[in-house]
Design a protein that fits this description.
There is one protein chain. This protein is of the alpha+beta class. It folds into two domains: 3-44 and 125-279, Trna Endonuclease, Chain: A, domain 1 (3-Layer(aba) Sandwich), CATH 3.40.1350; 52-117, Arc Repressor Mutant, subunit A (Orthogonal Bundle), CATH 1.10.10. It is 42% helix and 19% strand. It is built from nine helices and ten strands. The protein has an eight-stranded mixed sheet, sandwiched between helices. A two-stranded antiparallel sheet has the order 2-3. Helix 7 links the parallel strand 6 (169-176) and strand 7 (202-207). The two termini are 26 Å apart.
Amino acid sequence: MDDEEIHALRSEVKRLRKTLSELTPSLETLLKRRGFRIYKKEPSEDLVLPAKRFLDDFYEMLKKYSFRLFIRDVIKHQEYFMKEQVTKYATSGVTEAYVDFLLSVKVVEPAGDGFRLIKRQIKSFGETLEWFLCEIFRREFAAEAVWGVKFKRPRVGGDYDVIAKIDGSILYMEVKSSPPKQIYNSEIAAFLDRIFDLSPEIAVFFMDTELRMKDKIVPMFEEELRNRFSRGSAGEMQSPPQVMRVEKELFQIWNKTFIINSKDSIAGNIGKVLSWHFRK
């Protein structure tokens, strides 16, 4: 099968997914059936995005891991930076091209001998990363999706970073822009709490890193699962579900909860998650 045939098949899959999405209940309806109503979504205070006419180019650039790391550094030095301050994760030539791109799409502007963000007082890269993940579901998988969602839930609160409708099923994704060393047990516990509350058909814990998940994140999940399943409701001992490797740094629990990173391709890894879930 040549590249043209593969491209044609992918286009057909997207078309069929879009048709199916239109024939199935909306994401809002699926959530309502579970007793969930969105009261806040998609905040814009910390979004680092260009004008609408530049969004397609910006989206394509965000697919590059080095560009996402570069954007984090730009946010860190948003009041004023020189190219040398944001060349930590790429060569000087690549960094210069990235700065020129941000200038061309009017995300940064000249400031003396350096540059600065045009929209300042950005707290973190988190909202922009959530927007990007949501766009991946919309663009690559023809899925209805929202990000930065808040529900009025008395016991389980917090943000649901990305929620998507996949062929009539609900997918919930937790999005982490911090490296593994900055992830704590309480965040794993909160993720599992939201899963048990929302009961999505698919749940994904995503970390925007190319580091190994097996070193810290997977053991944290195993520890939290032991804490939750060591005793049942009647006090009897239970075996916790296992965290199993799908491939490389992709792991699954129950064939419906997944731990993934951004190694190779975010969209590619999401595709592997969906394929695994629906095949199993």
